[in-house]
Design a protein that fits this description.
This protein is mainly alpha-helical. It has three domains: about 15-45, no CATH class; about 55-130, Winged helix-like DNA-binding domain superfamily/Winged helix DNA-binding domain (Arc Repressor Mutant, subunit A, Orthogonal Bundle), CATH 1.10.10; about 150-210, no CATH class. Helices cover about 45% and strands about 10% of the residues. It has helices at about 20-25, 30-55, 60-70, 80-85, 90-100, 125-130, 135-145, 150-165, and strands at about 105-110, 115-120, 185, 195, 200-205. The strands form two sheets. It has a three-stranded antiparallel beta sheet, with no helix packed on it. A two-stranded antiparallel ribbon has the order 1-2. Helix 3 (about 60-70) crosses helix 5 (about 90-100), helix 3 packs across helix 6 (about 125-130) and helix 4 crosses helix 5 (about 90-100). The longest helix is centred in the first third of the chain and has 26 residues, at about 30-55. The protein is globular, with a radius of gyration of 21 Å. Bound molecules: iron/sulfur cluster (SF4). Iron/sulfur cluster binds near residues 180, 182, 197 and 215. Iron/sulfur cluster binds near residues 182, 199, 200, 210 and 213.
Length: about 220
Amino acid sequence: MGAPGWLPGENGHTFMDSIFNPETQHQDVGAKVVAALERLTHLLRHLVWNEAKAHGLSPIQVHVLISLLVHEPARCRISQLAREFQVTQPTVSDAVASLVAKGLVVKRPFPADRRAALLELTPAGRKLAEHLAEWGHVLKTHVDALPAEMRHELMIGLMELIASLQRAGLIEVARMCLTCRFFQPNRFPSRETPHYCLLIERPLAVTHLRLDCPEQEPAA
Ligand code: SF4
């Protein structure tokens, strides 16, 4: 049994140090950011749950359908999806089996690996996935209502945070410019397009930075 909240736990922290303790949180910007992200996570989970329930799906089935809609075929494999969602392959495998049984997904042979299968949406699966892909718009409307400068800072801040978590091994897949070997940050510091992509040989403005680029290759 763990130590009571006011006594140090195994990591030496007490409830008084907790980011969820309103007193601690009040004095610590980092704690407020984490608590805010947690609140947004609840909302996002709630929105996906609502969509899933309305269509007799589980949340992971919703994510599988949307991923198959937006990703190139080579990424539409159970192993890839499991890495992306940070869940086990059997979890994705069960979700896919259910989607196949519902006539929303089909499995095709994967030429490069006979043990793997490529997943493809059926026409009914595509139609549903296109509808489901709208679920994030509620939140986007509110993000769009923020002043442009704040929106850009929020985007960069979140990208930097994801990059840091990826470097620490806590996020497995993130195909962002910030962690790409082709990315040259601030090559032209005084320009409106300060960054540069060596692959497409073009300068990039902050708004051009990508969160999910199919050509991304992780920096060493
Ligand atoms: S290849 Fe894609 S992710 Fe990499 S720097 Fe260029 S645009 Fe960004």
